[in-house]
Write a structure and sequence with these properties.
By secondary structure, the chain is an alpha/beta fold. It has 2 domains: 3-189, Rossmann fold (3-Layer(aba) Sandwich); 209-367, Rossmann fold (3-Layer(aba) Sandwich), CATH 3.40.50.720. 49% of the residues lie in helices and 15% in strands. The protein is built from 18 helices and 12 strands. It has helices at residues 3-15, 20-32, 34-39, 42-45, 48-52, 101-117, 138-152, 171-185, 206-225, 241-252, 276-287, 294-300, 329-337, 353-361, 369-372, 375-389, 395-419, 426-444; strands at residues 57-66, 72-83, 89-95, 123-129, 161-164, 233-236, 256-262, 265-268, 303-306, 317-319, 342-344, 365-367. A 7-stranded mixed β-sheet has the order 9-8-7-6-10-11-12, with helices on both faces. A 5-stranded mixed β-sheet has the order 1-2-4-3-5, sandwiched between helices. The chain is globular. It binds NADPH dihydro-nicotinamide-adenine-dinucleotide phosphate and (2Z)-2-iminopentanedioic acid. The site of (2Z)-2-iminopentanedioic acid has 12 residues, from β3, α6 and α16.
Length: 448
């Protein structure tokens, strides 16, 4: 391996021994961009990689809120402003008990390259809290969001940093966060958050965008490979925002999703999650106070496999849409044994580096998260454009732009992979294409 790349991976590993998710992401990205770094010796003099792996700013704060019984709770709030060379920091907020600095740093780092791939002017950021929304009432969620924004507001703005949703943060939470921001600032800067309701500056297709984008990505990959999507079976994990959009668009395109999952197991629906009633039920489940994927199995009379992951089901395509590292080597082995040939990531870093290497080594075509799930943030950036112009685009307009962006991501990934003699390696292709633009902008903007 190139000595400079090796040194930065080594030093980052030494410095952040306690941040395994962040190190996993840094290692994967730096290894795959090695040929670009080799071709640009000036990067080492400018300490480009050392700067790339150090967030521009990391904000940690206390969040204090009352539950419905009046008891006081304290959580940690975070915002990682990772890299702003391409535009205002942009990326979601995650509310989940597993949130910590390592998780948010990996998400912010990945987001930087993902946002670069969209071709839109957005930098990389991520934030959230270790708050657990499961089992909380609507009033508790509102009070938490208000407390969270009471600190966050001073760090964000339409040209500074524009948060959105992620795990545990959807339209309802964005509404409460925006309300508090507007109250404190006394200003209708609706470009400060994306994923808003349609009555106050939200974009059509934003809720669907990540899932739709995954399917547009697959469609284009299949065009490159001479394959047909119609009739293929799909296993999905998760039952949240991304999984919902995947089910909706897969059905429209004639493919069949047969699994969804949650933290406690998965549901197998061999008929397919393919009717309006079933797909809408995902939204209903997610919105309920005690959200649990088993509700789907009970309602539609299908099997609930408690404590298990959906990857044991034999399908053509696997699309993880839940959380990080749910696909490890043992899962990758099962996928290969089952004859799965295509693996596309809806979630961020759903697989370990070992699992990805195993899948690719066994001929599985891998579509990495930062490319395949870029549709959500892409439409977020389109929402920002609509907000700054004070107008709204039609469904067709947004959908068309989303499709073009996803097709372009596939095309540039293939091109970058071929340029460096890496045939059909869409993981390296996406990392290289995303990195090239960030690196050029960092060089142009000097030592900051
Ligand atoms: P949601 O909160 O809507 O849904 C999260 C889903 O993941 C739920 O089904 C949840 O099940 C499951 N889940 C969460 N944590 C775990 C866990 N530790 N173990 C097993 N299952 C878990 O989130 P999204 O759909 O928005 O996000 C899903 C993934 O997609 C994340 O990786 C996110 O970063 C990524 N993503 C999201 C985008 C967006 O625009 N929303 C854009 C691009 C990527 P349960 O409730 O049972 O825990
Ligand atoms: O991981 C992601 O790209 C998101 N959660 C969406 C971020 C955004 O700003 O829309």
């Amino acid at each position: 391996m190139n000595e400079y790349v090796q040194r930065v991976i080594h030093n980052t590993s030494e410095k952040h021994k306690d941040q395994p998710e962040f190190l996993q992401s840094v290692t994967e990205v730096l290894k795959t961009i090695e040929p670009v770094v080799k071709a640009h010796p000036e990067y080492e003099k400018a300490a480009l990689l050392e700067r790339l792996v150090e967030p521009e700013r990391q904000i940690l704060f206390r969040v204090v809120w009352n539950d419905d019984k009046g008891e006081v709770h304290v959580n940690t709030g975070y915002r990682i402003q990772f890299n702003g060379v391409l535009g205002p920091y942009k990326g979601g907020l995650r509310f989940h008990p597993s949130v910590n600095l390592s998780v948010l740093k990996f998400l912010g780092f990945e987001q930087t390259f993902k946002n670069s791939l969209t071709t839109l002017a957005i930098g990389g950021g991520k934030g959230g809290s270790d708050f657990d929304p499961h089992g909380k009432s609507d009033a508790e969620i509102m009070r938490f969001c208000q407390a969270f924004m009471t600190e966050l507001y001073r760090h964000i703005g339409p040209n500074t940093d524009v948060p959105a949703g992620d795990i545990g943060v959807g339209g309802r939470e964005i509404g409460y966060l925006f309300g508090q921001y507007r109250r404190i600032r006394d200003s209708f800067d609706n470009g400060v958050l994306t994923g808003k309701g349609l009555t106050f500056g939200g974009s059509l297709i934003r809720p669907e965008a990540t899932g739709f984008g995954v399917l547009y990505y697959i469609q284009r990959v299949f065009e490159h490979e001479g394959l047909v999507l119609k009739g293929k079976t799909i296993a999905v994990s998760g039952y949240g925002n991304v999984a919902w959009g995947v089910c909706k668009k897969a059905t429209e395109l004639g493919a069949k999703v047969v699994t969804i999952s949650g933290h406690n197991g998965y549901v197998y629906d061999p008929e397919g999650i393919d009717t309006k009633e079933k797909i809408n039920f995902l939204l209903e489940m997610r919105a309920s106070q005690n959200a649990n994927v088993k509700m789907y199995a009970d309602k539609f009379g299908c099997a609930f496999m408690e404590g298990k992951k959906p990857w044991e089901v034999k399908v053509d395509i696997c699309i993880p849409c839940a959380t990080q590292n749910e696909v490890d080597l043992s899962v990758a082995e099962i996928m290969v044994q089952n004859g799965t040939q295509y693996y596309f990531e809806g979630a961020n870093m759903p697989a370990t580096n070992e699992a990805i290497a195993y899948l690719q080594g066994n001929g599985v075509l891998v579509g990495p998260a930062k490319a395949a799930n870029a549709g959500g943030v892409a439409v977020s950036a389109l929402e920002m454009s609509q907000n700054s112009e004070r107008l709204s685009w039609s469904c067709e307009e947004v959908d068309q732009k989303l499709r073009e962006i996803m097709y372009n991501i596939v095309d540039v990934s293939y091109q970058a992979s071929e340029r460096y003699g890496l045939k059909r390696d869409l993981v390296s292709g996406a990392n290289i294409a995303g990195f090239e633009k960030v690196a050029e902008a960092m060089m142009a903007q000097g030592l900051i």
